[in-house]
# Entry
Amino acid sequence: MKTETAMVLSLVIALGISAQQNPGTDARVILADPILQVANRFPGSIKFNEKQRVVEFCPDGAGDGFVAAQNVSVPTLKDFAYLYIYFFSGYVELPEWRKNADAKTTAERVLSKPEYEKCNNKNSIEAARCVLLNLSQKRAVKLIFVRYDEGKRSVVPENIVKELSDKGSSQKQ
# Structure
């Protein structure tokens, strides 16, 4: 199982994983990796390129992308992507997913990591905003808008400060 998981994380893949589609995928692995948790709920929506440090959430051929500097760890990039998707992404099916206990628990687990301690806040949206802004400082992690049209990938840089200030105030914790 470790070999299978390592292969999944080391290749450029579209993570269309679900425990039902892939009986060999342990539910604990899905819950431990925040991006696998998203991919489990939205099969085919996540693209991950570990070498280039890119995670994309494009459930309908367009969506949010996250690009990290090489000095940013893969787990940190995944945390950033998960927190943005959970708290701030505008994809139409996310409000229903956000009500899921596993999704909420994963967000709480990510926010409770020691490396994000200085962003501790009773308001989860504010804590997530703090983590995302801190990680985006000095362009360590950048937010992009990604669109796939006719097999062609288009990327538009996004202003993370603007995106975080415009979104989230109406989201439920």
Summary: Residues 50-166 form one domain. The two ends are 34 Å apart (CA to CA). The chain has eight helices and six strands.
